[in-house]
C-alpha cells in the first residue's frame, strides 16, 4: 500500500497517524462535511440517541478530535455531569477546544491528551465511553478496548462508531471507487493534502468488519455486544456493557 501500512512497526504507525491528524486538524470539520456529504452528522446524532446518556453522567469522548460528540454530550449530561474529551493529538484538541469555547460549550467539559491504549483514569470512572472514527487509528485495538473496559463503571457502556463493511457487494465496489479514486483528490483540492486522505481510505479498508469487532469487544470483557449498521454498513455502531 501507499504507506506500506501492513509492514510498518507500531511506533511508526503511531507517528504516521500523528502526522496525518496534525496536518488535517485545521480543515478537519469542513472535510468531514464534504467527504460524507454531511451524513456524519446523522451518524453522530444516532450515536447520541443510542447512548442513553442522562443528566449527571460522566462521559469519556475518546479520540474526541474536534469535539462534535463532546458538544452533544455536554448538553445531555448538564451542569451536574461531566464530559472528558481525550485525544492523542494536541492539534486536534486545540481545534476542538477553540470551537467548543466559541460555541459556549464550557463548564462541564475537560480536555486531556491521552493514548487510548493507556487511559490515565481510575478504574470505574465513566458511565459511558464513546470512540467515534477513532478506533481504526489506534495501533493496538485490543489493548485500547481493555483500557476502556477498565475505566468504565460497572453498568457502564461503550459505543464504537466506526467505518465498517458495506453489506451489499455493489455498494462495496462503489465505495471502494469513491474512497480510492475520488476522496484523495478531494483531499488534495480542499486541504492540499492527498496523502493523508489516502491513508484514511486505507485505514478504513484495514479495519475489522462488524463481526470481528464484535468478537474483539467480547474478548476484552464486554457483555451484550451488539451493532447497528448505518448507510448500508458503511458505518456501524457497536455497543457493549461492563457488568
Ligand atoms: N471523534 C471525532 C469525530 O468523530 O469527528 C474525531 C475522529 S478523527 C477521524 C480520529 C481521532 O483519533 C484523531 O483526532 C486522532 O488524533 C485520534 N487518535 C488516533 N489514535 C489515537 C489514540 N491511540 N488514542 C487517542 N486518540 C487517538
UniProtKB/TrEMBL annotation:
<dbReference type="GO" id="GO:0009234">
    <property type="term" value="P:menaquinone biosynthetic process"/>
</dbReference>
<comment type="pathway">
    <text>Quinol/quinone metabolism; menaquinone biosynthesis; menaquinol from 1,4-dihydroxy-2-naphthoate: step 2/2.</text>
</comment>
<feature type="binding site">
    <location>
        <position position="87"/>
    </location>
    <ligand>
        <name>S-adenosyl-L-methionine</name>
    </ligand>
</feature>
<dbReference type="GO" id="GO:0043770">
    <property type="term" value="F:demethylmenaquinone methyltransferase activity"/>
</dbReference>
<dbReference type="GO" id="GO:0008425">
    <property type="term" value="F:2-methoxy-6-polyprenyl-1,4-benzoquinol methyltransferase activity"/>
</dbReference>
<dbReference type="GO" id="GO:0032259">
    <property type="term" value="P:methylation"/>
</dbReference>
<dbReference type="InterPro" id="IPR004033">
    <property type="entry name" value="UbiE/COQ5_MeTrFase"/>
</dbReference>
<dbReference type="GO" id="GO:0009060">
    <property type="term" value="P:aerobic respiration"/>
</dbReference>
<feature type="binding site">
    <location>
        <begin position="115"/>
        <end position="116"/>
    </location>
    <ligand>
        <name>S-adenosyl-L-methionine</name>
    </ligand>
</feature>
<protein>
    <recommendedName>
        <fullName>Ubiquinone/menaquinone biosynthesis C-methyltransferase UbiE</fullName>
        <ecNumber>2.1.1.163</ecNumber>
        <ecNumber>2.1.1.201</ecNumber>
    </recommendedName>
</protein>
<feature type="binding site">
    <location>
        <position position="66"/>
    </location>
    <ligand>
        <name>S-adenosyl-L-methionine</name>
    </ligand>
</feature>
<keyword id="KW-0831">Ubiquinone biosynthesis</keyword>
<keyword id="KW-0949">S-adenosyl-L-methionine</keyword>
<keyword id="KW-0474">Menaquinone biosynthesis</keyword>
<comment type="function">
    <text>Methyltransferase required for the conversion of demethylmenaquinol (DMKH2) to menaquinol (MKH2) and the conversion of 2-polyprenyl-6-methoxy-1,4-benzoquinol (DDMQH2) to 2-polyprenyl-3-methyl-6-methoxy-1,4-benzoquinol (DMQH2).</text>
</comment>
<dbReference type="InterPro" id="IPR023576">
    <property type="entry name" value="UbiE/COQ5_MeTrFase_CS"/>
</dbReference>
<comment type="similarity">
    <text>Belongs to the class I-like SAM-binding methyltransferase superfamily. MenG/UbiE family.</text>
</comment>
<keyword id="KW-0489">Methyltransferase</keyword>
<keyword id="KW-0808">Transferase</keyword>
<dbReference type="Pfam" id="PF01209">
    <property type="entry name" value="Ubie_methyltran"/>
</dbReference>
<comment type="pathway">
    <text>Cofactor biosynthesis; ubiquinone biosynthesis.</text>
</comment>
<dbReference type="InterPro" id="IPR029063">
    <property type="entry name" value="SAM-dependent_MTases_sf"/>
</dbReference>
